[in-house]
Amino acid sequence: MQPLNRKTAQITQTRPTKVVQFGEGNFLRGFVDWIIDILNEKTDFNGAVEIVQPRDKTAYQKVNAQDGLFHVVTEGLQDGQTVQETRLVSCVSNALSPYADYAAYLKLAQNPALEFVISNTTEAGITFDPADTTFETTPTSFPGKLTALLYRRFTHFNGAKEKALTIIPCELIEQNGDQLRQIVLRYADLWHLPAGFSAWVEQDTIFCNTLVDRIVPGFPKDTSQQIQQKLGFEDNLLVKSEPFHLFMMEAPASVAKAFPAEQAGLQVKIVADLTPYRIRKVRILNGAHSALVPVAYLQGLRTVREAVEDEEAGAFIRETIFEEIIPTLDLSAQELQQFANDVIERFQNPFIHHELLSIALNSVSKFKVRVLPSILEYHRRKGQLPTRLLKSLAALILFYKGDYNGEQIPLNDAPEVLAFFQSAWQKETPGETVQAVLANQDFWGADLTQVEGLQAAMTTQLKTLQQKEQAKTV
Fold first, then answer.
1. Which residues touch 123 (CB under 8 Å, ≥6 apart)?
2. What is the CATH number of the domain that holds 148?
3. Among 271, 297, 330, where does a domain finish?
4. DSSP code of residue 208
5. Of 331, 358, 416, 460, which is the most exposed, with the fewest CB atoms less than 10 Å away?
6. Model confidence over 341-373: pLDDT tens digits?
7. Residue among 121, 124, 144, 143 at smallest CA distance from 134
8. Residue 431: alpha-carbon gap to chain centroid
9. Per residue in 54-82, pLDDT tens?
10. Domain of 361?
11. pLDDT < 50: residue spans in the chain
12. Do residues 246 and 288 share a domain?
């Protein structure tokens, strides 16, 4: 096999750098860089990406060793068909570390062609660190580094409005763009930067709130040798992804013109308000995961695909989504049903081995955010309780007992959560256990015993599950 670089791959075309990307990880390469590469092919975007290593590590050197090249292997189901595609992504031109060369990092801001900053520094990345008291040396936090970059651009171009950038954070927090802007302004204040800079950040720099969705498992360890042999290249940055992708930005129309991904047939949408789409993702995709896990696990199933393809568990999750979750949402029926069908198809991906127990991590807090709102909204709209979602909550309570059908369940949650359930399962009757769980305001943010009919219905559901368990052991 040949080493992968621009010479061996015979790639000679160069493009102006339009994007500075904070982060070199699998998700950005298998999602954002894959999108930009297709933009370059199918539209007049014509832009390169320069990667900035956000932490003081050396992973950026791997990118440069391959001249920014890497393959994205896309495997899964799409519209009922099996997809297996490989794309050589060539839009990344360079990677650098601001810790190794801060001057080179700041010089990125002086590029007149630069238009975008894209980031994924994990949810913990968008934070203010008061220890970052200066921009004369490399700030520790990502927002500190971004502020230094923006200030250099502001001064270099004398505050020109047309040289302001569009910031597209992909960190998985709500209103990520708004939060990032506020932290940049805090650094401007901490560093006593000119008022004109803060006004440029607030009025001219666009910070997009975003919603990103694609499963990117990363480097395919089990099959990497076979893939590389087939490609004829040794690719240490090989990344695997599913076919589904969704990139939504809350941004003005000017961003859609500058980043013409919809023209390329990509699922990239610019909208005025992300809220209904975020709720759709949390309730249908994440909510279905969390609702499915305890029901399927107690049934003896161990992976998402196995559960969805099982007659009983598969029917349960489809009916839960279409009959109890979708009726609580406000987007068009067509949009909701298409998204739900995509979710089911993603769950069935034969190339991704998604363990139920990996989703079960911190299930109580996940249930509060992902599933409980659907229960309460269904009750508010319909005047009755959703039986399948209640079954899921009852299964969750039984799951947290820690053993089922004579087998230990490897629970993974905060010690105080596990201690609470251990105590709740010491109660004399299932009804008392249910009451204790529903009344725990630390879990739910409210006393759920006050929801009309919920405690009685939950007690019935829990007893039914326990009867099934007893029948198995007889």
1. 171, 172, 173
2. 3.40.50.720
3. 271
4. -
5. 416
6. 999 999 999 998 899 999 999 999 999 999 999
7. 144
8. 37
9. 988 888 999 999 999 999 999 999 999 99
10. 275-473
11. none
12. no
